[in-house]
Write a structure and sequence with these properties.
Elements lengths: L9 E6 L2 E9 L5 E10 L5 H15 L10 H13 L5 H18 L13 H9 L7 H18 L12 H14 L4 H21 L25 H10 L6 H10 L3 H5 L6 E2 L4 E4 L2 E7 L2 E7 L9 E4 L2 H20 L22 H15 L8 H12 L4 H8 L4 H8 L5 H13 L4 H10 L3
Antiparallel strand pairs: 1-2, 2-3, 4-5, 5-8, 6-7
Helix pairs in contact: 1-3, 2-3, 4-5, 4-7, 6-7, 9-11, 9-13, 13-14, 14-15, 16-17
Length: about 450
């Protein structure tokens, strides 16, 4: 049977002297199942409100990003009717329904065996995305943006279905991203991985016999390298940033190489001034929801290795204690001091948590006003790693300091900075082929004649 997304319709009807919103739902076999919602309104003066409620209800259940594709919606409506029985309120009902739809999206996987091969590819990707219940909000939002953005532009409903996809379609798509859209290899590779993951799940759970992406060559990985400040520049930045609102954020990121999400998620409870330790236990991210960017505090880190406890460096400890004392004073002086984010370290003078977007944008303002060379905020993390490696720290120790999931990530970005590990090789080569080189190397790099 061809895949058709049926629009859910309804009407306001009079039953037993009261107005009901009657909607036409469909089960897995495409059979219609009517459900009636008692609005509690009288036909004498409640028709307008009943129609407004029905219109809002239909808008909600016809939103394909929220509505289940099986008879799950029938079950959800029945539960909402039961909970609102005897005390109906239109706004409360719609709020309850919205919450129920979101919970179903997060906790109930889709049944792919019901998905036909003539389903539009983009619709399939959106359905697959609803099974990704364990990924974080910003990751989910990123997948959603990619699917409903460039992927939807190229693989339109009229053009591509699950059954007619060909390897060259994806190769043409990568050319479209790189040539027509002017995007980089990293974006093309990211989209490649999303689509391959979605189709792999379709092979495992549903109608696909094999993953056509296995026949598609992945775009080249990005050769992007982050910038960094030299030691003198880093010291200059920290000096010039002392009077800036972001000073404590910049200080922590420069010394510890924290990710933006990690430094913003830092709470005073994670700092032990007696044992001199600082711990990364959570993070703050920004993600889009219904077209609106929102800040979220997550009680978990990017990976298990990201959760780490590090020594509290003396200069950082002094700065943190002064910062804490200053905010205690702000709390006494400003009646409007924000109480909801009291436990966070990185807040403004009114106690409000810095948003990730603000950190990124204001950091550029700080550099411009300070006359510093422009780098990204994330490049402070690169600065920390690079300075440690250039000063003889091993890639393994730097990997643990940064909270990388493996040393392979550290090697990928910083192996070319690991000069010290090559010194002994240079000395040994001088000994194998006796020459002045060995003594020159010792004197130059090790300070030993």
């Amino acid at each position: 049977m061809p895949y058709i997304r049926k629009a859910i319709t309804g009407s306001v009807q009079l039953k037993c002297g009261k107005l009901y919103a009657v909607i036409n739902l469909y089960d897995d076999k495409n059979n219609r199942k009517r459900r009636s919602i008692d609005t509690g309104l009288s036909p004498r003066n409640g028709k307008t409100k009943a129609k407004e409620f029905l219109r809002s209800l239909l808008d909600l259940v016809n939103d394909h990003e929220n509505t289940p594709v099986s008879d799950s919606l029938v079950e959800i409506i029945d539960k909402c009717n039961q909970k609102s029985k005897g005390a109906f309120d239109a706004d409360s009902y719609l709020e309850l329904l919205t919450k129920s739809l979101e919970e179903r999206r997060q906790h109930v996987p889709l049944r792919y065996s019901k998905i036909p091969l003539d389903m539009p590819f983009v619709d399939y990707l959106n359905l697959w995305l609803k099974t990704k219940t364990k990924i974080q909000a910003n990751t989910y939002a990123g997948y959603q943006t990619a699917i409903n953005g460039r992927i939807a532009e190229f693989f339109g409903p009229a053009k591509s279905t699950l059954g007619n996809l060909k390897p060259e379609d994806f190769e043409d798509y990568y050319d479209y991203l790189l040539v027509e859209c002017g995007l980089d290899d990293c974006t093309a590779l990211h989209h490649h991985r999303i689509m391959k993951q979605a189709l792999s799940y379709g092979v495992k759970k549903g109608p696909l016999l094999y993953n056509i992406m296995d026949k598609v060559e992945a775009p080249a990985d990005s050769d992007f390298e982050g910038d960094y400040y030299r030691a003198s520049e880093a010291r200059e930045l920290l000096e010039k940033a002392k009077e800036d609102p972001l000073y404590i954020v910049v200080l922590l990121t420069t010394y510890y190489g924290f990710r933006r999400s990690e430094v913003l998620g830092l709470r005073w409870s994670a700092i032990d001034f007696e044992s001199n330790t600082i711990s990364i236990e959570r993070k703050v991210i920004v993600a889009s929801r219904d077209g609106k960017r929102e800040t979220h505090d997550l009680k978990k880190t990017k990976s298990r290795s990201s959760r780490r406890t590090l020594p509290l460096i003396a200069v950082v400890k002094d700065a943190l204690l002064k910062h804490k004392e200053l905010h205690e004073e702000y709390k006494r002086v400003f009646k409007s001091y924000h109480q909801g984010t009291e436990g966070y370290v990185c807040t403004d003078v009114l106690g409000k948590l810095f948003s990730p977007d603000y950190v990124t944008s204001h950091f550029q303002v700080l550099l411009k006003h300070s006359g510093m060379r422009s780098i990204r905020f994330h490049d402070l993390r690169h600065t920390c790693a690079t300075l440690l490696i250039l000063n003889g720290m091993s890639l393994l120790n730097v990997s643990r300091w940064l909270g990388h999931s493996s040393t392979a990530i550290t090697e990928r970005y910083y192996l070319h900075f690991d000069v010290r590990s090559q010194i002994e090789l240079a000395i040994k080569m001088g000994e194998i082929l006796p020459h002045q080189l060995a003594d020159d190397v010792r004197e130059t790099f090790l300070g030993v004649a």
